[in-house]
Amino acid sequence: MPSPNELKTKIVLKGSFKDIGEDSSTPQIPVTSLQAGSQTKTTEECGSESLVYNEDESDKIEQPDLRKLIVYCRIATMKPWSWDKQRETSVCEMFNISEPRGNELCQDYSKEMLACTERQLVRVYPLGTRFDSSNYDPTLMWGQDRKMTFCAQCPDVWMHLNQGFFRQNGGCGYVLKPEVMRRSSQSSVEYSPFMTEPHPDIPTVDLEIELISGQYLCQDHKMCTSITVDIQTHGIPADHFEMPQASHRDPMWPQWERNQCVYPKKTILMPELCLVYFRVDVMFKSLGNPQLYAQNCIALVNLQPGLRYIPLRTPGGELISQSGLFVRIHKETVLNGSHYYNRDKSQGGPIPILITDTDQRS
To answer: Which is it for the CA torsion 5, 6, 7, 10, positive or negative?
Structure first.
């Protein structure tokens, strides 16, 4: 498979079509280049072995000219087969599985799926019965190394997590998966997204957040009666925490007493997949229930220790001018019982240089 850098400025198409053996009349000529002047592999060079394809004949591509464009993302249906035989399949085949099937494989075949995703692309699409166009929780799929998740149906918390996760790399669409997933066969202890104890090869993070104040949390302050700030962490199941909510009757400049809104220290077992979600709900006079007004989702690796300003966004993801939260972040990284990152500059010592991004730095 080409690297993400090699795929820059190119369009990669995916599709499902009949097995090569079913249509021997299709000529095996070089695939049309994704970029003028370059050459790519043919379907034959990518491997003739195939899994069971989508049974819906109407979804299969039969036109030879279209078939030649599908190279690296040939859709195969994930059905029971030998996990040992899976290693012999072509890397040009990808799996397109439904949300229930993805959850089932996470629970029953965690180890096998991690080995599978070392070679194949895996895409998970939402359940067809989501008539309200809601999204599914993508964090469990990321913990299982599902390469592609679809969370863009409506602006809910799951879409916010998806936006925040990929915003950490400049919004380019790619995020490097954790090293323990890239080299799972070389790890001394098997990785599992359902782990409840620290992994010897993964540094954990002790996280503590104190809410200090807010700025322009509701710009339509004459129409609202109170605001509520909610802070959550999302990641693998063991890293899901919802901290106590903080309410205030001043929607413009709410301030909390020192140590009034200190959220207890939590140990994050998989920091590279952990997201910190800040949410502001507003109670309007004309409505009986609080409404989501502003939010922001930041990857834990981008959240710097010390006093920080968290800019807020609309439910759709657009930045709100001059709206934000002031918080104090305490982070301490631990590996095998050794504390080698200090909490903040006030305690002295080196400060870790983490992944930063101009839009994510807080």
So the answer is: positive
